[in-house]
Amino acid sequence: MRRACIVREIRVARLMREQGLFAQRPRHRTITTKSEPGAPVAPNLLQRDFSADQPNTKWVADTTSIWTAEGWLYLAVVLDLFSRMVGGWSMAATQNATLVVQVMRMATARRRPQAGLLHHTDRGSTYTSESYQALLQQEGMVASMSRTADC
Length: 151
What we know:
By secondary structure, the chain is α/β, with parallel strands linked by helices. The protein has a domain of 88 residues: Nucleotidyltransferase, domain 5 (2-Layer Sandwich). 23% of the residues lie in helices and 24% in strands. The chain is built from three helices and five strands; from the N terminus they run αβββαβαβ. The longest helix is centred in the C-terminal third of the chain and has 15 residues. The radius of gyration is 22 Å and the shape is elongated.
């Protein structure tokens, strides 16, 4: 019969340190796309055609989470498909419509697009929010959305 071997965490930590081994932090798997049931959804006009003939004709936007010294933060970005230039970006501790509206305002102020620009996102609650959709209409942009979590 074998005896159970008990090893304390302190010993394991010391042995790992001596061997230059480190425990990995668990991956942060935050779902950044949360669709609101019944939210208005725009058709997918982009159809995965990520090319553009001129600047400010097709923009895409998305949100992701990033680990920082302050903890997890959300980064929202608007990208021009012609130049791949970031038109607007913002970081916040919470992901809400205010974050993406702020990014869109920055992008429109910096790039000054003409009416008719195709603006593509996923179906996340931030992008289907009333405030975001109202801003797109105010700027004369055409909304396009792919399925949930597939920007």
